[in-house]
Amino acid sequence: MSKAAGNWKRNRHNHEFLGSTRLAGTTLHNHRFAGVSGRAIFVGNTHVHVIKTNTDFTARHFHKIKDISGPEIPVGLGRHVHFVRGRTSFDLGHRHGYLFATLIENPLLL
Length: 110
What we know:
By secondary structure, this protein is mainly beta. The protein is 8% helix and 41% strand. It contains one helix and nine strands; from the N terminus they run H-E-E-E-E-E-E-E-E-E.
């Protein structure tokens, strides 16, 4: 594969993610979420991804999650993950924190 083709493929990858929020609210509760990141956005010698999804609907509401991942974290065999930390949208008088790592890109090694 040519270097240009390899860079194009690297540009186009994304990551699955899933997680649960931290407890919050007058009646303590949490939410679950899952999704697929946006394409790689190159920043210096690394890259990040846009993370955007909604939480599940529980306790009569849901929250929006919109964030930028941290830089790539190598996990071996040329693979990597990204760390994400932030807070949900403010809904029904509260917001939740979240902290998770994305799944590896291209898990089937294609």
